[in-house]
Amino acid sequence: MVESVIEVEVVYAAVDRQVLLSVAVPAGATVRAALLESGVGAEFPELDLTGCPVGIFGKVIADPDTRVVQAGDRIEIYRPLLADPKEVRRLRAAKAAEAKARNQ
């Protein structure tokens, strides 16, 4: 019996470039298996595909080793944040308030 195959996409955006790879995986493959099958690790050797945070269509996957992919899924590999967005907004607001106070 022939094993059915599904197509998924794997995307990763590094600081200097982005890749979108189409990969055919067996039906029932997990997110982690699809990542390893995609070859993205060869293009970005600095990635730790066994422990990096990933998601599907913008939703973080808690356990990629057990989550099964569906045909057409876009698996996204996330980079760690360089700064906390809330802290950046707080600093920007404080700076704007300070500038406004100086101009009055």
From TrEMBL:
InterPro entries: Mopterin_synth/thiamin_S_b, RnfH, RnfH_sf
Family classification: Belongs to the UPF0125 (RnfH) family.
Protein's name in the database: UPF0125 protein BK666_31480
Annotated coiled-coil segments of the chain: none
Pfam family, one: Ub-RnfH
NCBIfam families linked to this entry: PRK01777.1
UniProt xrefs under HAMAP family: UPF0125_RnfH
Endpoints of the signal sequence: none
Lineage, broadest ranks: Bacteria, Pseudomonadati, Pseudomonadota, Gammaproteobacteria, Pseudomonadales
